[in-house]
Amino acid sequence: MTTLASPDLRFHRLRDSATMLRRNLKRLLRYPSMTVLLVGMPIVFLLLFVYVFGGTLGAGLGGGRADYANYVAPAIILMTVTTTVQGTAISVAMDMTEGIIARFRTMHVARVSVLTGHVLGSVIQAVFGVAIVTGVAVLVGFRPTAGLGGWLATAGFLMVLTFALVWLCVALGQVSKSVEAASNLPMPLMFLPFLGSGFVPTDSMPAGLRWFAEYQPFTPIIETLRGLLMDRPLGNNAWLALGWCAVIALGGYLWSKRLFNRESAH
Amino acid sequence: MSDKRSRAAIAATGLRKSFGDHVVLDGLDLDVPRGTVFSLLGANGAGKTTTVKILSTLLSPDAGEVQVAGHDLVREPDAVRAAIGVTGQFSAVDNLLTGQENLLLMADLHHLGRGERRQRTALLLDRFDLTDAARKPVSTYSGGMRRRLDLAMTLVGRPQVIFLDEPTTGLDPRSRRGMWRIVRELVADGVTIFLTTQYLEEADELADRIAVLDRGRLVAEGTADQLKRRIPGGHIRLRFADAPGLDTAMRALGQATRDGDALTLRVPSDGSLRALKGLIDHLDQRAIEVDELSVHTPDLDDVFLALTGPSDQKVTPR
Question: Does A128 fall in a domain?
Fold first, then answer.
């Protein structure tokens, strides 16, 4: 049998992923209002919790506003990651509702690169967001005591966390039927830090809620961040947090890949 | 494998697809030779888009053997993808990027070299009359510009087989003609075009072969002329000044259909000069005054209406 031509069928995963990453970074620059919103939200919460609730909550912890700033800042940093990945779900859903993804699917490109482009773009976005929010937190009184090692470990841990949550949100963006749904589906990620040790210690909660708070993934994640930034012993929180990250990353990756390879309904 | 199959750009036998209980394609056979335009006609929901989606690897068929550009669709989807280009009904462009960036994105995904990607992009922008808008975001483009960019993006990778799913739906007549010109140029370069359309005029203008899809089956296939010959409908229409004139003519001509309100007669005819002359001579000999005479040859609209639609209204093809 003769064929029309023998196309070069090697995949170029890295090259295609880099191309898709460039596309996503360009899109972020063209649509800055979303990035501003995603970084603005944790800053609003930071100001709210430090200046409005901070005096009372700090007193409850046996200190004052300054102590509460140190307590809440890691939760706000985590919130920066969750708002960023919420943005990922939205931009994935935007992609899915537009015809361009159908075009990519009919092209000989490494399929996963469409998704890795989003993942890498969001990780970069999260790095910038976390840097800005941490800066603002320092301005309002956050005084981390971590040394260089602690900061590097914090940065590494945040990257791992973002990577895990972003894969989950790539899947959530794909299951969403609309952009609106995509902005709502990751809401539990925004809400869970409140139902953990993010804003108040879990031992102040009623029994049932406390049980949930202590076993949900965000509590060890926040405690690890807090421990690293405030240079305190981590206990087994770090392993629990990394374990959760691994589970979320793997689950999110497999789910995303499966969703992307599934056929469009019609 | 037969020689015929390997020479075909698209060869399908017994293509089937259902969504749940709903049978969309019910045993489709297609044979599209290389370097030709094949047009699939059908009403909304006839299965045109599903056919394109299957042939372009977006959907997998439930049954059937399909080869596109010499590669088996199910076993070698990546080889098929490397050989095809698709411009669908809904524009597949990135709205946040500029026209130029969209084309460069395609060039990068096709792994073109540095010089070639610039060159190819500039060439396509020029060819599709988008050079002036190249640096503007696509969200500011008109419908016609988006469609041109969409096709330009498809051409970056020099596909051998191009699927155009209703490429001119919603375009103004000038943009539509521009699209037709481009399609003709592509075919002249040896590209195979698989075109779906609702505009019969478009199929008539462009297609070497036309197939009519109705409820998941091909109900007719051939050149535009062959299809037109298959159905009745050619006639000469005569209009008269008054009812007595109409009645006289009716008696004289015999096998005509009378419309008393419009004072017209419909005389079956193939529309040839000889038939026309015969009719005029006949009327002349009896000194019948005709106000107006017009010749109607069946167009693809007649074919389409005769072959598709509710089965009780269907005309049996000759």
Answer: yes
Amino acid at B318: R
Contact A26 B101 (CB under 8 A): yes
Q: pLDDT by residue (tens digit) across B258-299?
A: 887 888 888 877 777 888 888 888 888 888 888 888 887 777
User: How many folded domains does chain A comprise?
Assistant: 1
| Average pLDDT estimate for A142-154 | 93
DSSP conformation class of B32: E
B90 to A99: CB separation less than 8 angstroms, yes or no:
yes
Looking at beta carbons, which residues of chain A come within 8 Å of B117? none
Is A150 in a helix, a strand, or coil? helix
| Cross-strand bridge partners of residue B11 | B31, B67
Is residue A68 within 8 A of residue A102, CB to CB? The reply is no
User: A249 pLDDT exceeds 70?
Assistant: yes
User: Helix, strand, or coil here: A236?
Assistant: coil
- Residue A153 domain-assigned (yes or no): yes
Q: Which residues contact B200 (CB under 8 A, 6 or more apart)?
A: B41, B299, B300, B301, B303, B304
Q: How is residue B279 written in tokens?
A: 């009719």
Q: Is A85 exposed, middle or buried (0-12, 13-18, 19+ CB in 10 A)?
A: buried
Q: Over range B165-185, report the average pLDDT.
A: 87
Q: What are phi and psi for residue A257, nearest 5 degrees?
A: -65, -40
What is the pTM for the complete model shown? Answer: 0.81
Q: Give the domain extent around A250.
A: 13-265
Largest CA distance in chain A: 82
Name the phi and psi angles at B199, rounded to 5.
-90, 110
Given a cut of 50, is residue B170 above it in pLDDT?
yes
Residue B282, token pair as written in the block:
């006949």
Tell me which chain B residues have a C-beta less than 8 angstroms from the C-beta of A98: 92, 94-95
Assess if residue A225 is contained within a domain.
yes
Give dist(CA B156, CA A69) in Å, integer. Answer: 55
- Give this complex's ipTM: 0.83
What six digits make up the tokens of B204? Answer: 């008539």
Q: Which residues of B touch A2 (CB under 8 A)?
A: 6, 70
Maximum alpha-carbon separation in chain B: 80
Pick the closest to residue A168 from A260, A261, A84, A255 (CA basis): A255
In a domain, A1, yes or no: no
